[in-house]
Amino acid sequence: MFGRSTRPEPDAIDVVIGPRATFTGSLQCDASIRIDGAVDQGRIVTPVNVIISDTANVQCDIVAKTVSIRGRFKGVIQADRVEMLDGSQVQGVLNVNSFYMEENAVLRAAVNIRSDAATDLRPPQPPEQPTIPVVTPTLPSGQ
User: Fold this and answer.
1) Share of the chain above pLDDT 70, in %
2) Which residues pair with 120 in a beta bridge?
3) Model pLDDT for residues 52-62, shown as the tens digit of each residue
4) 46 and 28 Cβ atoms separated by less than 8 Å
């Protein structure tokens, strides 16, 4: 009775954090999320899109298919694609398959572009060096 009978369209925006709203915490949704206000801390997770509008100030971690940024963002993004649009300001770490940046965007972040097959996001380790055996010289007996 209280549950949803059908799933929303993938690009339907079901969640809007309005321009006068401030959110702190964990938000998980199966539809797109638009942020016009502030997110102070936490985590946002969706299998589709997050839209950060020009009035938004977001400081959290985001996991999504696509993140489009026009406002301010600080944190870690894990996404297939990140789009930094005109006027956006981004700080943090972006782990993406695809990255787009317009001219008047400001980027102060590490951008890690990976392939679809990559699952381990740890930095590559140097190859192992062969072990060189240490031989202690022995003195001849009787000395």
Assistant:
1) 77
2) none
3) 999 999 999 99
4) yes
Q: Is the pTM of this model over 0.85?
A: no
- Distance between CA atoms of residues 99 and 67, nearest Å: 10
Residue with tokens 């590490």, as numbered in its chain: 110
Is there a contact between 68 and 51 (Cβ–Cβ < 8 Å)?
yes
User: Count H helices, E strands: the chain?
Assistant: 0, 10
Contacts of residue 124, Cβ cutoff 8 Å, sequence gap at least 6: none
Q: Going by DSSP bridges, is the β-strand pair 57-59/61-69 parallel, antiparallel, or unpaired?
A: unpaired
The neighbouring-strand residues paired with 58 are 39, 73
Which residue is listed with tokens 């990255």?
99
Give the torsion sign (CA, 99, 62, 38, 41).
Answer: negative
Task: Find all residues with CB under 8 Å of 138, minimum gap 6, and list them.
Answer: none
Integer angstrom CA distances of residue 94 from 18, 84, 131, 135:
25, 11, 37, 49
Distance of CA 45 to the CA centre of its chain: 10
Listed by start position, the domains of the chain span: 13-113
Tokens 């981004």, residue located = 90
Question: Over 60: is that where the pLDDT of 78 sits?
Answer: yes
